[in-house]
Specification:
Low-confidence stretches: 3-40
Number of strands: 10
Order of helices and strands: HEEEEHEHEHEEEEH
Mean pLDDT: 85
Largest sheet: 8 strands, mixed
Strand content: 15-25%
Distance between the termini: 35 Å
Helix content: 25-40%
CATH topology: Glutaredoxin
Structural class: alpha+beta
CATH architecture: 3-Layer(aba) Sandwich
Strand order of the largest sheet: 1-10-9-4-5-6-2-3
Radius of gyration: 16 Å
CATH class: Alpha Beta
CATH superfamily: Glutaredoxin
């Protein structure tokens, strides 16, 4: 990630922390390390219209019924995205039976290259979460969902091998599709699993 991406990611995270702080002060409830939790309906999220890796139109209802770990990235990402998805893959295993209550939703910030076919091939890695949902769309649709989730992204470079700067936090959305907390990047699989398990137990 470039310095510009890191700075933008920190700026976005400051907004999330502000939301979380307001919720914590209102509820007088301490939160676990590694996450920032907000009240029901607060924080990132909202309606969207995208296409999944099978080419089917989907909207925000794809989040309904499960705890959803929403992560933005792209298939050409050299480091952060495969590392995060591998970590989430192990975290889902660490959850044991609770894993059936959760799903990973990977939304591209590179719709020009990340077709449904490319997303499906990428998410087929055995190291990544089983049954992960990959979402893509038009540039305008991606811009809309990124704005709703307070996600920074920017094309870096020219030619076919350009990179994408993007923020890296994971959004945990509850089974009603509402924001629950941010799970910071860089945690271990066990720490990610702990945050998910804590959310499930408190619901």
């Amino acid at each position: 990630m470039t310095a510009a991406a890191a700075l933008a990611s920190k700026s976005a995270r400051a907004v999330w922390v502000a939301w979380a702080l307001a919720a914590v002060l209102a509820a007088c409830a301490p939160q676990g390390a590694g996450s920032q939790s907000a009240g029901p309906g607060d924080g990132p999220g909202g309606p969207f219209h995208l296409v999944n890796q099978d080419g089917r139109d989907v909207d925000q209802r794809v989040l309904d019924g499960k705890w959803s770990l929403v992560f933005f990235g792209y298939t050409f990402c050299p480091d952060v995205c495969p590392t995060t998805l591998t970590t989430l893959g192990q975290a889902m295993k660490d959850l044991g039976p609770k894993a059936s209550q959760a799903q990973v939703v990977f939304i591209t910030v590179d719709p020009a290259r990340d077709t449904p076919k490319a997303m499906k091939a990428y998410l087929s890695s055995p190291a990544f979460p089983r049954n992960a949902i990959g979402l893509t769309g038009t540039p305008a649709e991606i811009a809309q969902v990124a704005k709703a989730y307070v996600v920074y992204y920017r094309k870096d470079g020219d030619g076919p091998n350009y990179a994408m700067d993007h923020s890296t936090a994971i959004y945990l959305m509850n089974p009603s599709g509402r924001f629950d907390r941010v799970i910071a990047d860089g945690l271990t699989p066990a720490q990610d699993a702990q945050q998910i398990s804590q959310a499930i137990a408190s619901s």
